[in-house]
Design goal:
Strand content of chain A: 15-25%
Bound molecules: iron/sulfur cluster
Strand order of the largest sheet of chain A: 3-2-8-9-10-11-1-12
Helix content of chain B: 25-40%
Mean pLDDT of chain A: 95
Number of helices of chain A: 14
CATH topology of the largest domain in chain B: Rossmann fold
Number of helices of chain B: 11
Radius of gyration of chain B: 20 Å
Shape of chain A: globular
Distance between the termini of chain A: 43 Å
Oligomer: heterodimer
Largest sheet of chain B: 5 strands, parallel
Structural class of chain A: alpha+beta
Mean pLDDT of chain B: 95
Number of strands of chain A: 16
Largest interface: A-B, 47 and 46 residues
Number of domains of chain B: 2
CATH class of the largest domain in chain B: Alpha Beta
Order of helices and strands of chain A: EHEEEEHEEEHHEHEEHEHHHHHEEEEHHH
Strand content of chain B: 5-15%
Largest sheet of chain A: 8 strands, mixed
Chain lengths: 378, 260
């Protein structure tokens, strides 16, 4: 984990072939490199062995409920943006054993599960997702109720950012102030420079750890013209963004808890939970106890859960949020409003995943706008 | 001190294909443990030995589709402390409940050489429609992991971890790329209860709803999306008319698309 605003420790330019050297340098240093790969018609996050694993020349097209990747004929590495996976899979695994118990005569022995702390290098982290990690840091690194496994994995993780050059139609990071350019909190940040026959990468070094790794990669110091590239590219990407979150959404939702729009969205919402599970900041889990048939061993597991399930709000006598409107409202108001009260930050970073991966294309920006528009000019 | 008496387990068959009972035999490694933990008192597919009731745990496979079955399930209920219906037939009426939408006499006359030998009910229905049940395991067939989980839970006096949420949750836990969003393949996952171990989506197929309706299923919204993906009304109707066709949510939704 690195400081939020990094002092630039140098800016360099490398050839595309040096991406391979970077991945090798990370692997030689003992990192498990996780990055974008093409699988099952999507760009997913999987272990990378070399730069050959990276999808070259792919675009993604995203809309509410629709995602397609297609070859775009270019030789560029990072034209697509965020896919179905978020980095939380690695920092906050979907299913974890917490402890085991073994029966010993009339008593039992408790064995705490040793958490695995792999040294991950996340390769190709987009700015929204970097912000999402910082949001989850506030959730899991919070003193009294901290999650030591998360914190150790996060601290060990090396972050290679890729600045976005084009948004998907579902992106709205610009209006959430979380992108498209990362301004700190990374070890290395790459910006792909590909135009008019030129193909290079600008590398911004953001930490001393990044400096050590980058020493094994050959490049040249960036010129002043090179250095302005990320800002220019990012402004272009921000301008191309089709969606945005309405301003002051925190207060807007707070004063509209009984709005008729909740009933409207409830007609469409499937309560399938996809939005929460693809969201890079959602952190809810349930804890389940298992035994074997003979009752000689037991284990306690923690797995991802969602405010869209009935079990989630189950207390003695039944579930509290039975109606769909109540579940959708809980989710959306938490992301955009009560998260501020709880963690002093927005629970939404504008990555657009919940829009794309909602099977019926429900759009959090559109739901917010509908409520805002109903208020007229206040 | 005498060994504590083992709970008596019985496995009953109604109108069904035996596939769900087979899952118990498929437990292989764990089957010996099951046999160790319970006394298998009645399980014709595995042993001819029969021990008289009452039984501590009855697993009931199959739907009620004859007058004899309607009578027999009451007797079994009276003899069972805990009754668990297993599989799509027992929990929803099974594929044979397709007859519930048409005139059963028409089928009998068309299919059998001697219709007069056939004694059947007009409908095929779930065990729950006839007697109170204590728990149910969904699926066509049931998942052996869920079966073992339910038995372990019962034997150890704890709540079984058998969630009623959507199939989509399984996809996301496993990191499966959504076939509907990424490929445009119609998928029943958003209205189907999880439990199969994510079989179809992990092989790039849409979910066929083997595990029946999930809690609070919004079938109307999903059907509207199917239509957007290009499915016609008839195909949408047929999508709901399979193993769990008589589950109320699916029955209603299929009827809403029944224009013929
Ligand atoms: S709420 Fe939606 S857009 Fe916001 S961070 Fe979560 S998945 Fe991304
Ligand atoms: S908003 Fe979409 S993804 Fe979220 S629970 Fe509703 S239907 Fe599922
Ligand atoms: S593939 Fe089907 S079950 Fe899986 S997330 Fe998509 S809609 Fe849900």
């Amino acid at each position: 984990m690195t400081a939020n605003k990094s002092e630039a420790l140098g800016t360099f330019v490398i050839a595309p072939s040096e991406l391979g050297s970077l991945i090798s340098a990370l692997r030689e240093d003992g990192y498990e490199v996780i990055g974008p790969k093409l699988a099952d018609g999507a760009i997913v996050h999987e272990p990378l062995e070399s730069a050959d694993d990276l999808p070259v020349g792919y675009d993604d097209e995203q809309e509410g409920g629709t995602y397609r990747v297609a070859k775009n004929g270019a030789n560029t590495y990072f034209d697509y943006v965020v896919g179905p996976h978020s980095w939380k899979r690695y920092l906050f695994p979907p299913d974890q054993q917490l402890c085991q118990m073994r029966r010993q005569g009339k008593t039992f022995r408790l064995i705490e599960t040793k958490q695995e702390i792999p040294r991950y290098a996340f390769f190709g982290v987009r700015s929204c997702d970097l912000h999402a990690m910082q949001v989850q840091d506030k959730v899991f690194d919070n003193g009294e109720f901290a999650d030591p496994g998360y914190m150790e994995r996060r601290k060990a993780a090396f972050v290679v950012v890729v600045n976005c050059l084009r948004p998907a139609a579902t992106c709205f990071c610009a209006s959430m102030d979380t992108g498209p350019r990362a301004t700190g909190g990374y070890d290395l940040a790459l910006t792909e420079l590909a135009s008019k026959g030129r193909h290079e990468f600008l590398v911004e070094v953001g930490s001393s750890r990044g400096e050590e790794i980058f020493a094994k990669v050959s490049g040249r110091p960036a010129t002043e013209a090179d250095q302005s590239a990320p800002e220019t590219a990012s402004a272009k990407a921000a301008n191309a963004m089709k969606r945005e979150m309405v301003p002051d959404v925190q207060a807007l939702l707070k004063r509209n808890l009984e709005h008729r729009r909740w009933d409207d969205v409830a007609k469409r919402c499937l309560t399938c939970a996809n939005c929460t599970l693809v969201c890079p900041t959602c952190f809810c889990t349930t804890v389940e106890d298992y035994t074997d048939l003979t009752g000689s061993t037991a284990e306690r597991r923690r797995r991802w859960d969602s405010c869209f399930t009935m079990d989630f709000s189950y207390v003695h006598g039944g579930s509290v949020r039975r109606e769909t409107y109540a579940r959708y409202r809980q989710w959306m108001t938490h992301k955009l409003s009560s998260w501020f009260d709880q963690f002093d930050v927005s629970g939404c970073v504008g990555c657009g995943r919940c829009i794309t991966w909602c099977p019926v294309g429900i759009d959090i920006t559109e739901e917010a706008r509908a409520i805002r528009d109903s208020e007229g000019s206040r | 001190m005498p060994a504590p008496k083992k709970p008596k387990l019985a496995v009953w068959k109604f109108s069904s294909c035996d596939g769900c009972q087979l899952q118990l035999l498929c437990c292989e490694d764990e089957l010996l443990q099951v046999a160790d933990a319970v006394e298998i008192a009645y399980f014709l597919e595995a042993t001819r030995a029969q021990v008289r009731g009452p039984y501590d745990i009855s697993l009931v496979e199959g739907s009620v589709s004859t007058p004899e079955e309607a009578e027999r399930i009451r007797k079994i209920r009276r003899q069972s402390k805990i009754l668990i219906s297993i599989g799509a037939c027992a929990t929803a009426g099974g594929i044979q409940a397709l007859r519930n939408f048409k005139d059963v006499d028409g089928f009998i006359n068309a299919v059998y050489a001697h219709p007069e030998y056939i004694e059947t009910l007009a409908t095929s229905t779930a065990i729950r429609d006839h007697v109170d049940i204590d728990f149910e395991l969904r699926g066509c067939p049931i998942d052996k992991g869920q079966l073992l989980e339910a038995l372990s839970a019962l034997l150890n006096g704890r709540r079984p971890n058998v969630p009623t949420h959507s199939q989509c949750v399984e996809c996301k836990l496993m990191g499966t790329v959504c076939v509907m969003v990424a490929h445009g393949t119609p998928c029943m996952g958003p209205v189907t209860q999880a439990g199969c171990g994510n079989l179809c989506p992990s092989f790039n197929r849409g979910c066929y709803n083997c595990f029946g309706p999930k809690e609070t299923p919004n079938t109307a919204s999903l059907s509207a999306w199917f239509a957007k993906l290009g499915m016609d009304q008839r195909s949408i109707k047929h999508f709901y008319r399979s193993f769990n066709t008589n589950a109320p949510a699916f029955r209603r939704e299929s009827e809403a698309h029944d224009k013929t």
